[in-house]
Amino acid sequence: MAAKSATGKRVTLRDVAARVGITPAACSMALADSDRISPATKEAVRRVAAELGYVGSSAARALRKQRAGAIALIVPTTSRHVFGHSYFMHVLSGVTSVANDHDTQVLIATNADTARGLTAYERVMRSNSADGAILTSAAIEDETVDRLLASGLPLVLIGNFPQLTDAITIGVDDRSASRAATEHLIEVHGRRRLLHLTGPLDHQTGVDRRDGFLEAVTAYGIGADAIVLEGDFSEERGHALVDGLGDTYDGIVAANDDMAFGALTALRSRGRAVPSEVALIGFDDFGLSRVTTPAISTVSVPAEEMAVAATERLLKLIDGKPAEWTRRDVEVSFRYRQSCGCGA
Amino acid sequence: MAAKSATGKRVTLRDVAARVGITPAACSMALADSDRISPATKEAVRRVAAELGYVGSSAARALRKQRAGAIALIVPTTSRHVFGHSYFMHVLSGVTSVANDHDTQVLIATNADTARGLTAYERVMRSNSADGAILTSAAIEDETVDRLLASGLPLVLIGNFPQLTDAITIGVDDRSASRAATEHLIEVHGRRRLLHLTGPLDHQTGVDRRDGFLEAVTAYGIGADAIVLEGDFSEERGHALVDGLGDTYDGIVAANDDMAFGALTALRSRGRAVPSEVALIGFDDFGLSRVTTPAISTVSVPAEEMAVAATERLLKLIDGKPAEWTRRDVEVSFRYRQSCGCGA
DNA sequence: AGAAGCTCCTCAGACGTTGGAGCTGTAACG
DNA sequence: CGTTACAGCTCCAACGTCTGAGGAGCTTCT
After folding, report:
1. Fewer Cβ in 10 A, N or C end of chain B?
2. Does residue A56 reach within 7 angstroms of strand D, measured from its CB?
3. Where would I find the HTH lacI-type domain in this sequence (chains A, B) (predicted)?
4. Count of CB contacts below 8 A, A vs B?
5. Does the CB of A24 sit below 7 A from strand D?
6. pLDDT digit string, tens, across residues B225-257
7. Hey, are the CB atoms on B288 and A291 less than 8 Å from each other?
8. pLDDT tens, position by position, A82-97
9. Could you give all domains of chain A from N- to C-terminal order, each with its CATH number?
10. Angle, nearest 10°, between helix axes A24-31 and A13-20?
11. If pLDDT is split at 50, 70 and 90, which confidence band does A3 have?
């Protein structure tokens, strides 16, 4: 019954107040545990509220307090694949757990319907139904991100946005991680002719992971033999790129696991053995890489951890509480499995 | 916040009205395209609103209209694995796309914090910040579901709940599907000694899929050789169950793909070949089964389609519009891949 | 005893929006 | 020319909550 009385009408503070014999204002204070109300009255109010199944109207509260009590998780359209990606689930899981602990609602804003001219960003701004937002996997040149920032809505970005110097961001050091992964193939497995399948280069992640790869091959003086092909994080593209190439390489660094898996299936169909003929390493570790055969070695990105930190940061931002950081990188870890030659 | 003017104050209808030279009420009607307002005025209001960056307060509107403009997607705690499961993403994807088309917000309600005594269900009821809810993967005996139903909150359940005769539900015919999958192993691949790894039996899905299996083996008179082991939808359990068993079977029907994968790794470590020695079939097709080696044959459950239908149904329910169905099953499809012996 | 101080509550109003009822001016009509 | 009709607005009130100001009743102090 919760929000409805026996008569079907909503139970409001007024109803509780009438039953207790005081005013709605006093009830409000009682439920807020204000010290302006006597313990006895508080107790009575609480009892009656429970009896009647009183639940406060979030709309009224939001209006009065000028605070929605909710945060938005924004996912740009560009990343249709992101949504179909377990990355998002890790993020969502982290966001909701923190939000729950703070009695905050989580709303999902996607802009699947660009047709109607409203992006996810606008949707949040329009609605004004969130006190802040977490934005993930945005493209580098997304002017709506700038607008969102400019709007003053509390915002925390997950990922790296070097050009947005004022933004609060949390991400991983993709360049270093990619460099380390590449060096692993070189140092541990002795690969010298490397292929890199990039992510979309309009995303910073794509650029950084490519740059890390390039740093590594350059440092080892094997840049001349290195091949860089532009991909888009999709399995299909990973497959197609490898399928359309000769066999002049002995190691592949893919910018994510999906492309690594695409590469794996392509290599399989070309009859090239992994890892003996071609060592393969991916990026992300959101689930896929662990279950393939051979299991794909990868750089594990702690998506949930980032989401948790981002959400905590956002809530502090909203509350105007002091914060420890403005730009933060979390540590990745390396999962050397079978596809690079490490695993059993 | 987009809703703030240069001075930092929120832009309200009053501001727009003052600028146009009419009252807020007229503005409201103008923006609602009411025919009580002249086209010229409407035009003026729209222009000024755009100029000022006016965005309506969702809280005020919700309060006035007694309508939140949002729906909740509820995920019970019991299914921690569900949240870590791509099933949820398919559902979320379907829900958001429909909700977006109807200018409705989606909020996620999980009850990760049972510690504080509030389940996801209560959370939605408490907040009153959703006009209705979609509930997925609830256990059979979940009295809070009953309470939620009793509360009168518009509700659509995804899954099968035979005991809740009044509830609006959408699901798949798990029993028939499971029977068909089992029969496939029997008829097409000639397996006679079958093992079934069940889902959690406090979920209807677990029960129905087991019953379908039993129907099939009974119909073919091979029930005596059949083994049924109780699982919980987890990969670990699937692995453990198979690992702890002899090799007296030549086919496995797992109640979901995770358990099928667990079974696969266990078989691999025991040196039993799939599909030649043991044919394997799973259930769900949410992503995992396609990428393993061998790829796992499975029953494809159209999660996104269910979510879309559920959301459309919910929105109609909220609006009091006529609806076509109250209990509905969507069709599954069969993906016979390598693990049963079909695929290349 | 009067004033001061405290406790515990009431009162009024506002948050921003919206719908119904009411008002005003012009056009149409007899 | 007076009435009716209508378009096009204004006015009022309310949705449910919360806060600051104020007041009533009691105790305590000088």
Report:
1. C
2. yes
3. 11-65
4. 159
5. yes
6. 999 999 999 999 999 999 999 999 999 999 999
7. yes
8. 445 788 889 998 999 9
9. 13-63 (1.10.260), 70-171+304-331 (3.40.50.2300), 174-300 (3.40.50.2300)
10. 100
11. very low
